[in-house]
């Protein structure tokens, strides 16, 4: 008895996955029954750090997805195509699929899970969100009876690593990004990390699982970290906050319209006492709030070869365990294999979640203004905010930049639409030169 793996991709995560599969000692005995049968890569002449026979390698990935001897196809090439087509091809050839590809799942999840349900196979994606942190399986199983109120977290290791080093060392953005790439945290194109798109993909997946409906990726509001400056990090610190790129999925009201969700990714001023404020470096954390469980936080390494491979191989093991039970049943009871997917491991949502417009969001804001240093300017700002029902929690004149007074404002909770209207009015004030930054506050 043994289960054959077709590994698509032997880069950062593929290599980590092969390392675990080739070194089963001291791990669960079922691992010894899993064999890396074929490996698909772009360049078979590239030196590899894992010891696999050269005959296992091919550049013909489709041949792996359709190989009748393979039980589980593990897609670790990344990107949209050919990853999507290969996953679908594997499903149509009745292969179970394990993937770390949040970009494909967040865009083509409907198509992929519909095909998987029809074929009676599993598509597992623990590595796609939170790297090595178990969060997909807990949402599908351990927390399944809860009415989820919110899922909020730090789900991109690259940006958290960058923000942490900018805060701790005053490090330069480009230099820290290069380190994150060297360490294997960043996507092949790091724009996806830096502009919040990777976090948006992950949030769409988490929200779909947590709230039991399909989510259109374009409904996720998304801002990245490019506009976060060293000045804002310093001012936030003085005001008692840390800046984090948060992904937030929040059910508006459990009674009025249970499906109306807020879905947003943006830099956020997080109070230093909040549990997410101390999640640093490549670490991710996801805070889930449900009824009746209350708050549960998942914390661990969100990227990198070993942690991500841990999630990939755990998915392989979950499928192998099911296949093994099916095989034993077939042998002992002479049963025919039935293609009915395990209800807690498959995905079968049909309807789309309704998403609340950002203008209706109620939150606090931090804003930094460069103004002429003249009497009454703070009063003018206060009046404009007041004209739009935005009340101020604090106003501080911090210093001077380029000859202008630098004024930082933190509002009380306000409707985003009203806050934006106040900013439009403030932009017309003669005393206001620029508004270099606006960041939401948790
Ligand atoms: N890196 C991380 O920390 C994490 C990554 N992920 C996800 O895991 C997946 C893999 O990421 P990662 O390991 O970092 O990526 P890498 O770029 O390190 O590796 C990609 C691998 O896929 C192969 N490949 C890519 N395109 C093709 C193609 N068209 N045909 C054949 N082979 C191809 C490459 O071949 P060759 O080696 O010959 O170049 C390489 O082996 C992505 O979906 C990513 O989002 C998820 C969580 C964390
Ligand atoms: N590029 C991603 C990798 C994991 O999903 C990140 O930085 O979190
Ligand atoms: Na995970």
TrEMBL record:
Gene3D superfamilies, sorted: 3.30.70.260, Dihydrodipicolinate Reductase, domain 2, NAD(P)-binding Rossmann-like Domain
Binding-site residues for NADP(+), renumbered to this chain: 8-15
Required co-factors: a metal cation
MF terms in GO: homoserine dehydrogenase activity; NADP binding
Catalytic residue list: 202
Gene Ontology biological-process annotations: methionine biosynthetic process; threonine biosynthetic process
Binding of L-homoserine, residues: 187
Keyword Oxidoreductase: yes
EC number: 1.1.1.3
Record: residues binding NADPH: 102
Keywords on record: Amino-acid biosynthesis, Methionine biosynthesis, NADP, Oxidoreductase, Sodium, Threonine biosynthesis
Catalysed reaction equations from the record: L-homoserine + NADP(+) = L-aspartate 4-semialdehyde + NADPH + H(+)
Family of the protein in this entry: Belongs to the homoserine dehydrogenase family.
Name of the protein in its database record: Homoserine dehydrogenase
Native species: Desertifilum tharense IPPAS B-1220
């Amino acid at each position: 008895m043994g289960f054959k793996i077709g590994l698509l991709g032997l880069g950062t995560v593929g290599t980590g996955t092969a390392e675990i599969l080739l070194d089963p000692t001291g791990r669960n005995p079922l691992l010894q029954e899993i064999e890396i049968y074929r490996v698909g890569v772009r360049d078979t002449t590239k030196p590899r750090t894992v010891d696999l026979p050269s005959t296992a390698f091919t550049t013909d990935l489709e041949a792996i997805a359709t190989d009748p001897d393979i039980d589980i196809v593990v897609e670790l090439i990344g990107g949209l195509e050919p990853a999507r087509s290969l996953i679908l091809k594997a499903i149509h050839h009745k292969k179970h699929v394990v993937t770390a590809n949040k970009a494909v799942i967040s865009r083509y999840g409907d198509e992929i899970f519909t095909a998987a349900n029809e074929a009676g196979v599993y598509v597992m994606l623990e590595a796609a969100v939170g790297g090595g942190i178990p969060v997909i399986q807990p949402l599908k199983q351990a927390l399944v009876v809860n009415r989820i109120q919110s899922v909020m977290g730090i789900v991109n290791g690259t940006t958290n690593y960058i923000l942490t080093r900018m805060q701790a060392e005053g490090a330069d953005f480009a230099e820290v990004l290069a380190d994150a790439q060297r360490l294997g945290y960043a996507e092949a194109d790091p724009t996806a990390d830096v502009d919040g798109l990777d976090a948006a993909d992950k949030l769409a997946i988490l929200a779909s699982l947590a709230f039991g409906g399909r989510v259109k990726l374009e409904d996720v509001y998304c801002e990245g970290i490019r506009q976060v400056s060293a000045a804002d990090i310093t001012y936030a610190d003085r005001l008692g906050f840390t800046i984090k790129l948060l992904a937030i999925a929040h059910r508006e009201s459990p009674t009025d319209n249970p499906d109306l969700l807020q879905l947003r990714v943006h830099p956020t001023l997080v109070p230093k006492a909040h549990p997410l404020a101390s999640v640093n470096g490549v670490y991710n954390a996801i805070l889930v709030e449900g009824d009746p469980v209350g708050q549960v936080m998942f914390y661990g390494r969100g990227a990198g070869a070993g942690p991500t491979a841990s999630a990939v191989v755990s998915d392989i093991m979950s499928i192998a365990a099911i296949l093994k039970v099916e095989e034993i049943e077939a042998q002992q009871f002479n049963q025919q294999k039935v293609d009915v997917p395990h209800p807690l491991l498959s995905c079968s949502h049909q309807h789309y979640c309704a998403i609340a417009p950002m203008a209706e969001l109620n939150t606090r804001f931090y804003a930094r203004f460069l103004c002429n240093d003249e009497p009454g300017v703070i009063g003018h700002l206060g009046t404009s905010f007041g004209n739009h029902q935005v009340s101020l929690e604090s106003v501080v004149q911090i210093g001077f930049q380029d000859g202008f007074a630098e004024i930082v404002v933190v509002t009380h909770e306000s409707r985003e639409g009203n806050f934006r209207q106040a900013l439009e009015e403030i932009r017309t004030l003669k005393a206001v030169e620029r508004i270099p930054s606006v960041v939401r506050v948790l």
